[in-house]
Amino acid sequence: MSNRMRKILSLLLAACLLSIPGLISAEGAAPTLDGVHDQSVMAGTEFDALAGVTAADAAGSDLTDMIMIDATPALDFKNGKATPENPGDYELVYSVTDNNGVTTEDYATLTVTKKTSEETVYKTFDFSTQTVTDNRGWEAKIGGEAEATAELKEGSYVIEIRKPGAGDGDIQLAKAGYALKAADYKIKIWAKSTKKTYAHILARNEQAEGWETFGGAFNVEIGPEIAPLELNFTAPGEGSAELLFNLGKITPNPDNAEDTTPEDFTVTIDKIELYEISGEETQVPTYTADFAAGEGLTAEAGDGAAASAAFADGKATVTIDSYPGEGGGVWSVKANILLGDTKIVKGQKYYYSFKLNAANGQGGEALVESAARAWECRANFNGFNAGAGEEVTVSSMFTAEADVDDPVIRLQIGNAPEGAANNSIAISDVVFGKLEGDKETHKTIDSFMPFGRNTANAENPSCPWETFNGTDEDNERGVGTIWAENGSFFYRIDNGGTVDWHDKLICGFGGNPLTLASDSYYTVEITARATKPVSCGVFLNPMGGWDPRFSEGMDLTEEFQTFRFQTTDTFIMDMDFELLFQFGSEALSKLGEVTVEFQNVTIYQMLVQ
């Protein structure tokens, strides 16, 4: 029986005893055990099971000397100390009995690792040199009366404008020779400005004899927070365009000369997304929920949470009476939208749509996956976020990543909105279907980081770093960038996502994994700080699946701290890993810009002897 189950049964037993009148009086209330926790020790090393553990009776008298400890497999404890010789997991049972004969138990796991050598440095990341940056074909052009500079800096394209000149074209960021075919195009420029300003976005026809454009977006406002500036246009056939982002003098309303491009400001561009959309597509519904029949949705809750589903007025309502306690997360409360007899085929295109209204607001994950196997058989990963009382439409169009015989749309909603202890979430208008036709969307991302997707990772082993942003896959939130400077490594989050994978920093990406040798334990040491207090999950995960060798957390402050995370098992052959830092959360989404500075990342190895 697991320690977790033992604890649950112990709590249930205590509740039953307390419910019997007179069985345990106030004077005979159960004693308490504090400080019991899971631990790890190397084989052959003395282990003090009582370190930090105390006990007291109902009156507060100390019972620490009366604590008894049992272990499975057995260990020989003397004064709370034992020396385990065999590696493995040991279940520890702590118990204490007061003078009234009332006993309390608590449980922990002792992980005994194999004997190893002393720690030696396995890998240290050198952040002292900056790698070559790439402007991705975007050239800055400063002319006329403008005074400005443009450079790749801090993982972005940064344009510092002292004077904007006399016209919008006096300051340009231009990409020439953008190949076109008969298709629709979308350009999204993720930018922010230290002062409110304007831009024109144009697609100039390079084959035309005179000045001709395929389209333009005019008087596009740029504010202090990173946001997408969008241009949509259609090309009738093969050709090429010069894409122009004009930041010179713009006055949207000639009658209001004060509302114009300012002086002395900076525009920062994190990335530019380019979409080519061709062909046609038709939505063919295959399932529509009928909540009026009182079915079609179920609710699950764990980790101390409580939730239920009900049906009324053609809607399904998930009532969350309580969110999970410590150790819970987004997965702790689930709403499963059933899809009838639907079966999903890998490689087929699908879509879904439904309306959601959360009384206290709610963010979470929207997954199309197996009802029984969950993440082990998942066809699509999506996210959503709704304000308090706001009805939103949650939708996705996707190509199935797996065959799923029993699919559901699973909403993972175990993270409580800020200040909320409970919630009521109404769901309606559920439609699921196939996408038929030959429509294709090809997306490229021009980012300006000196690492990652714009460099040949396999040829750059000293810098195996990358970011993943929620907006990279067209979610509403998640934008960040990375760079090295003055011996430190920086990760700036310009737009915080609501779920952890919206803002993710990765060490060991694609063709440049983090390879760890067999027959060893490892310690990952990280020294870091942040411009604002922020938390993240830290995972050492094998490439190609999800089986983290450690899952920990870091609570960063404005002061440098050093964190050490250790593996507790070995592997029989060298393995490729990714070291993940996942930052997204409801709290992060409200923080604004946050920069994390890594002063040191070192991996230590302990060879099994």
> What best-fitting shape do the alpha-carbon axes yield?
globular
E-strand count: 42
Task: Quote the average pLDDT.
Answer: 90
Count of alpha and pi helical runs = 2
Rg is 29 Å
Measured as a percent range, the helix fraction is under 10%
Low-pLDDT sequence parts: 1-5, 11-26, 454-458
Distance between the termini: 32 Å
User: What about the largest sheet?
Assistant: 6 strands, antiparallel
The assigned structural class equals: mainly beta
What proportion strand?
A: over 45%
What does this structure look like?
This protein is mostly beta strands. It is 3% helix and 53% strand. The protein has two helices and 42 strands. Strands 9, 33, 34, 37, 40 and 42 form a six-stranded antiparallel beta sheet that branches. Strands 11, 12, 14, 17, 19 and 31 form a six-stranded antiparallel beta sheet that branches. The longest helix has 16 residues, at 3-18. The two termini are 32 Å apart.
Report a brief summary of the structure.
With 609 residues, this protein is mainly beta. It is 3% helix and 53% strand. The chain contains two helices and 42 strands.
Provide keyphrases for this structure.
single chain, 609 residues, mainly beta, 6-stranded antiparallel sheet, 42 strands, globular
Question: What is the element layout, followed by pairings?
Answer:
Elements: H1 3-18, E1 32-34, E2 39-42, E3 47-48, E4 54-56, E5 68-72, E6 81-82, E7 88-97, E8 103-113, E9 120-124, E10 138-142, E11 147-153, E12 156-163, E13 171-180, E14 183-193, E15 197-205, E16 213-222, E17 227-235, E18 239-246, E19 265-278, E20 281-288, E21 297-301, E22 306-312, E23 315-322, E24 333-338, E25 349-358, E26 362-370, E27 374-386, E28 391-399, E29 407-412, E30 423-437, E31 440-447, E32 465-469, E33 479-485, E34 488-495, E35 503-507, E36 514-516, E37 520-530, E38 534-542, E39 550-556, E40 561-566, E41 575-582, H2 586-589, E42 594-607
Parallel strand pairs: 2-8
Antiparallel strand pairs: 1-4, 3-6, 5-7, 7-8, 9-42, 10-13, 11-12, 12-19, 13-18, 14-17, 14-19, 15-16, 15-18, 19-31, 20-30, 21-24, 22-23, 23-30, 24-29, 25-28, 25-30, 26-27, 26-29, 32-35, 33-34, 34-42, 35-41, 36-41, 37-40, 37-42, 38-39, 38-41
